[in-house]
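sorry for the late reply, my laptop died twice this morning and i had to redo everyting from scratch. anyway the thing you sent over, i finally got around to it. pasting the sequence first so we're on the same page, its 470 residues, then the predicted structure underneath. double check i copied it right bc i was rushing
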Amino acid sequence: MAVYFESTKTFKEMIRRRKVKICVVGVGTIGLPAAIFFASKGFRVVGFDVNERRVEEVNKATCVCEYPRMLEEVVRKGKLRATTDAEVIGEADVLIVCVPTPLDKERRMDMRYLLSAADEIGRNIKRGALVVLESSVSPGSTRKFGKAIEERSGLRMGVDFGLAYTPERYNPTLPQEIHGGVIYNKSCRAVESFTFNKVGRVVGGVDKKSAEMTKILYSAAIDAKIVEVSSLEASEATKLLENIFRDVNIALVNEISKVYSKLGLDTFEIIEAAKSKPFAFLAHYPGTGVGGECIPVDTWYLIKQAEEVGVEPELMKTARKVNDSMPKYVVELLERALRKVGKKLKGSRVCLLGLAYKRNINDSRQSPTFDVIRELQEKGVEVDVCDPIMENVTSNKVPLVPLEKAFDGKDAVVLVTDHDIFKKVKLKDVRKRMRSRVIIDGRNFFNEKELKRLGFIYAGVGKALEGERL
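ok and here's the structure:
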């Protein structure tokens, strides 16, 4: 079926009747949720991936993901399967591409995986297919991706196949139906509101028809507004703006938190007060650093691209520098706090709470915890890491200690990731098991007054430093 050659009216009817075959190229962190939701809406979906283990896990519905119950159901019903056989690309009417786009050693966007996908698609794509890219990329990348398909296939984008870009808007969470009682304790509407089908999209196409068809396609799986923009590049640039906005504003509050701490002020109190203004302020919060595969990566995409066209991106570079400085700043706080109990960093025993880059998720990619570990080990500190959420993640390369032993014999504990499960810690009890009572709070997680009442030395990012009040 050559869907791109059909009218948008006919395509819309085909979508309504679920007569369109979908192939998701890359069923990883981003691709699998897309495959699950389209399959749950009644489409026949096949996931293509070069990772045999991942394919097996998808087909057995055993892979770790946000929607395990939905995965089990669509696999059981035969709506979703995965394969390493690239021939399925040629059987698909629509190809949704979700492959990694990491940074290379020069912090430029690495297109290896994208070009590899373009090669597989180019060898197998049928005329009249619609190709949709979701991976985060720098402006102009989707068009390069399309040209790579053209060179391999002999087909022309906008003539023989459609091409569109709709950037993923991924909000990683733990599956609430499994972890609800452990992590969330109750139904969490905030989590539910950011599931795949509740987050709107932006769509740009190589031509008007590609954009319109993609909007029709995603409207079948997403119950939120889909905004059509003028071009592939406009859609790509929108994605970067969203994440760079966050990077810059987090850097602002991180830098301000260092100043306010020196002035004896509580940054979090000030942010809460600023939130009372009903316009022109959006709260961001300081912390131990910025991780994940989006915010710290996407900013570098545009930094490098700006330099290539002769623009010096001073603000974005500064934002990256500030946010990358936070793990070192946390170690400096630790060093100061240990001095108050007559300890030095070298030879001390410290446990870091949290390996994941974000609260209540089991993903450690680009986590600031790794930088804290390196800083401490270089200074001769004996470091343990505790993260109950990451304990069953097979890709985790860092040895973890269980929560019930995290405080034993430690000189200090550093809260890096504010998992809700750490609220289960009874500080009154664990203080007896510590060698020295020092806690560094990287996320405004603990109750400062309670800790001090229990005899802990407390220091926190964004908190007033002891003895330096105005």
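The domain at 325-460 is CATH 3.40.50.720 (Rossmann fold).
thats about all i looked at so far, will dig more tmrw
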